[in-house]
Structure formats: C-alpha cells, structure tokens
Amino acid sequence: MGDLRGLYVITDARLQPAEQLVTRVRQAIEGGAVLVQYRDKSNDPALREQQAGSLVELCNALGTKLIINDDVALAVNIGAHGVHLGHDDTAIDRAREQLGDEAIIGVSCYNQWALAQRASKAGADYIAFGRFFTSRTKPDAVAATPALLTQARRELDIPVAAIGGITADNGAALVQAGADLLAVVQDVFAAADVRAAAHRYQAVFAA
Q1: Is 108 among the residues known to form the active site?
Q2: Can 41 be counted among the known catalytic residues?
Q3: 67 in helix, strand or coil?
C-alpha cells in the first residue's frame, strides 16, 4: 500500500445536497485526493447504496480508491476498494474474509498506541490517529499527539493517517511528524471551491 500517501477526503452528507455529492467528490479528486471515504450515518440503505455505487464508478474512472466507513456489507455490495473500521465495528479478519486480499482495510486507533499495534498485527492496511485539532465533525473526539505519528512511522510498516480538524495550513506539521495521509472533511467539502481546497494539500506533501 505504498501508494497511500496524500489527501484522504471523507464525505459528510451535511455539507452538500445529496445531488451534489458526486460532483464535489469529483472536484476533490481533480484537486489531488488520493483516497475517498464514503461516510453517511443515515438510516436510508437505498440512498447509501446508490451514492456509494456512484462514487465507486467515479473513483474507478479517475484512478482513485473508495473506502466505505464502517459498513463491510455495503463495501462488498458495491465493489468498493476497502473499508474503514472503528473500535466497535467488524473485526479485521472478518472484513478481510468478506472483502478479499486486495481490499484496503483501515482502522481508527484514536490516541491509543496499543490499538495501532494490534491493528497492524491483524493485517490492517493503514491506521488512523486523531483528533489532532478541534474538529467540527467530531467535537468530542479524543485528542492525539504528533508523537504517535512519529512512533508509527518508526515502528510499523503500514501507512498512518491523521484526522481531526486538519487544514492545509496546519497539516504540514503532521506530515513532518510522520503522517502519510491527511484525512479531511470540512476543509475540503465545506469550501466554496472544492477543487482548489483539495489542491492546496499538494504543496503540503511536496514540502
């Protein structure tokens, strides 16, 4: 999974009308996003399947990968490239059985190094720490420190994502500390110009 480096955008249904989702994700990819996560907590399975199916078609067409948040069954049904699991979600080995060896499986480790070690040993393709800054998406999320990113870069052989309140202005310090991926919601999808907002992160990783 050495190609997992760069901007990792995460959708939020609150940030645009449903009919604009695919257009705005396309703009984020055109701006340089290397990974897209479909995150929708609604109780509308038909809408979720329709939206996720449209996004996986888009990602396939543009050479980007679609990750589904917390829903292995949906990822299987629409042929997504992987899934992102939280602490209380499907176990990594079960997700791997359903999704196959080529799937990307990411795991939230919050601010806990022990979770990162376990996820790595269990076969996760990347881990995620955060939040690093005040987050409007998850204001009550636990706080993580850049030292976790440095430790992960030094001791683990998988990419590490940073999440939580990240912007193109504050993200450089996290990349310097060891983040391979910057997972972003608001700073991209709340922007008036999604493509330009995403493009700003290219300079963060180039530096």
Answers
A1: yes
A2: no
A3: strand
